[in-house]
Amino acid sequence: MASTADFVWMDGKVVPWKEATVHVSAETVLRGANVFEGMRAYWNDEEKELYIFKNREHLRRLRQSTRIMRMSVPYSDDELTQAFIDVIRANRFTEGVHFRPVVYFGEGEAYAWKPEEIRTGVFVLAYARPHLASIATGVKSCVSTWRRNSDNATPSRVKAAANYHNSRFATVEAKMNGFGPPIMLNDRGEVAESPGACFMMVRDGRVITPPVTADILESITRQTLIDLYRDELGVEVIERDIDRTELYVADETFFCGSGAEVQPITAVDHYAVGDGKVGPLTKKMQDLYFEIAKGKVAKYRHWLTPVYGNQKPR
Ligand SMILES: Cc1ncc(COP(=O)(O)O)c(C=O)c1O
């Protein structure tokens, strides 16, 4: 069963789940014409507060996606932030939340983009979502036979729902073959990312991750981890292309993303990664990431946006 919640924010207001609908003739339905963000809010039990992680960065990337798509968003960043807060408050969540603001083309002419020719709407879906169980155990991955969509076709830099058609092929294939999330190569045959997260590996004590020009989403978690490895753990991070066979000799490998968080990969194509257990630099980063996301590290409180403030849920 798909997850549900009591309320959705849609086109300017909070509405009951069942009333959050678009017409079947909308461009978002017929041609997948929408862009979105996948964001998390972390529950801090001592403070009875939910903290949105890196709100500003997600809004910036949403604007980047809408710019490339030539979409006119009818709301300011402050209004969108208030929408996130309103929908989470309405659902009275008191645990980790995953939410998805979506900017979509509604009813109008095929391939239209001008506001006078097509309606541009926004909705925000929010769900209670605990950590994936696999962040403790790790996942067994494989190299997909499907290539990541390329910048000159359907750019990964645009976080468009339609890109996840490519993700679907790769995910279904990997599942059918008994694997967790796969690693996708780009058109040039270098490592890109997974269907829904970025990729990092450790070799000889250094963290290596593909550059933002490798047909990947410009991931917020990826940049967060690069900064934290350098600034807090004193680990060198190198952004460069990764060959397929490097996956088979890496000491540690993991996925990172708002949804995936820091997800260890313990095997690739049946080669054990390191000793086949969650690696030490992966584990250290998981612990640090969650401490920061839950508001327990004063230095990084500015990465967080509180949801409840003085309106705490009872
Ligand atoms: C295809 C893809 N790559 C990478 C990521 C990671 O991006 P972020 O860290 O901004 O969530 C995501 C989403 O989580 C994604 O869907």
Gist?
This protein is α+β, with helices and mostly antiparallel strands and 314 residues long.
Describe the structure.
The two termini are 28 Å apart. The chain folds into 2 domains: 7-130, Aminotransferase class 4, branched-chain amino acid transferase, N-terminal domain (D-amino Acid Aminotransferase, Chain A, domain 1), CATH 3.30.470; 134-293, Alpha-Beta Barrel (D-amino Acid Aminotransferase, Chain A, domain 2), CATH 3.20.10. It has helices at 27-30, 55-68, 77-91, 134-137, 164-176, 220-231, 280-293; strands at 7-10, 13-16, 34-36, 39-44, 49-53, 97-108, 118-128, 139-141, 184-185, 191-193, 198-203, 206-209, 237-239, 252-257, 261-268, 271-272, 304-306. The chain contains 7 helices and 17 strands. The site of pyridoxal-5'-phosphate (PLP) has 13 residues, from helix 6.
Q: What is the topological layout?
A:
Blueprint: E1 7-10, E2 13-16, H1 27-30, E3 34-36, E4 39-44, E5 49-53, H2 55-68, H3 77-91, E6 97-108, E7 118-128, H4 134-137, E8 139-141, H5 164-176, E9 184-185, E10 191-193, E11 198-203, E12 206-209, H6 220-231, E13 237-239, E14 252-257, E15 261-268, E16 271-272, H7 280-293, E17 304-306
Parallel strand pairs: 8-15, 12-13
Antiparallel strand pairs: 1-2, 1-7, 3-6, 4-5, 4-6, 5-17, 6-7, 9-10, 11-12, 11-14, 14-15, 15-16
The structure holds pyridoxal-5'-phosphate.
